[in-house]
Target: Lrp/AsnC ligand binding domain-containing protein
Amino acid sequence: MIEAFVLIIVKPGNEDKVYEKLKGTPQVKEIYKVYGEYDIIARIEVENIKELDHFHDEILRRINEIEMTETLIASSYRG
Model:
């Protein structure tokens, strides 16, 4: 299982639209509108890298209101 955090910058005024599109996808386990450099943060879970690629290419890239994303894959390190 891969857990990742996707930081999203949205075209101004489209935060609610992107939030609604993403909250209905099965990979998105948590989603928040936030203040700061990014507009939305989503926690996603997928089985493997291939599914992460699919989420990125077939879901995120198809939402025209998204300007930029940064995906952070969570480490299993528990130091």
The mean pLDDT is 95. The longest strand covers residues 2-10. DSSP finds two helices and four strands in the chain.
